[in-house]
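Hi support team,

I submitted a single chain yesterday and got back a structure, but I'm not sure I'm reading the token output correctly. Could someone confirm the output below corresponds to the sequence I sent? I've pasted both exactly as they appear in my results page.

Thanks,
R.
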Amino acid sequence: MQLSQLSRPSPLCAHGVQPKTPSAAPLRHHTEPEQARNRPATCSGRGSHLTRAQPREETSEQALERRVRESQEVEERVREIYTKADFTKELQQASGNLVVLEVESSSVCQTGLPEPELHWKDDKKAALAPCAKIKHSFQRVARNCPEVQFLHLEADGEEGKQTCEDLGIEVIPTIQFWRGEKFLWEHRGYLQLDQDLGDGIMYYGNTGQQGEHPSDFVTELHSQEDFDHFVNTPDQDDKVLTVVDISLTSASPCIHIFPAVLALAKNFKGYARFARLMGDESPAMQDIIRSLNVIEVPTFLFYRGGKLTGRHVGSSRGDLMGQILNQQSALGIAPPPPPGSAPKRHSLRRR
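Hi R., thanks for writing in. Yes, this is the structure output for that exact sequence:
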């Protein structure tokens, strides 16, 4: 994909069409491997690392109290909007925090792929079932992500349909990610929506497991000075590989590989250190990625002692891990033991 296609759309532009601006650097999105899209979801109802653990045993009264309490929390965390004006007001009041908009309907549930509509006449209840599950996932995420603002739009009725048209919503359900009045990314259709909801919140909202912040493990680089300081950190142990993740705001492969980058950063302490650079964050950042000869994202640059030792392009977690292990094994540096592994036992010899 050309870099000219990566500028953000103007606030609330019709149909989410992004205006093109001239740019000298072609930049493509790497094709994402299928296995990367089939991993467990994060920050969602399915395999979530942000959902609350429920007690193993509870009475019917306790279960009822919990459901009532959770319903109240959802009402507090998810704000209803009805018009474009409502949406604009919520964006302005979010104070720069991430805003996630869910658009759903009680009568429409689409995959997001080209599909015939004949099946609706056969079993509409079954066709709507996947979207009911998505709604519950959205509510659970909203309860557990306090630093993110959640909005809900019901697409039924004339007012809801008009608001969808105003916001460029063409597929139901859809989730959109916004910050300020800037559109970031969206997922259309129910297929893998819960997973993309979790990935998007982690990528844009800096929210991870048990309220942790990914930026505590993956350093955010916002300038040439940040980049130079991270790559050339004084007194950095040469045995620790420096990894810089070059990503773009709206590139799906970059979004979907980020949970793996975070996991590696947490598990490879003392073995590799990680940073992320958003190449379309500003004109200055675009200049940086051009100077680094980055033409496809995500690109991972490897440094040791301030010198570039290699690069990897792709969104496969396994390939990225393999590249890091290869870089280290070439110098005889062993990886840390897997999390939770038992320490090696030393045999005692009798004298």
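A quick pointer for reading it: Residues 1-25, 38-54 have pLDDT under 50 and may be disordered. Let us know if anything else looks off.

Best,
Support desk
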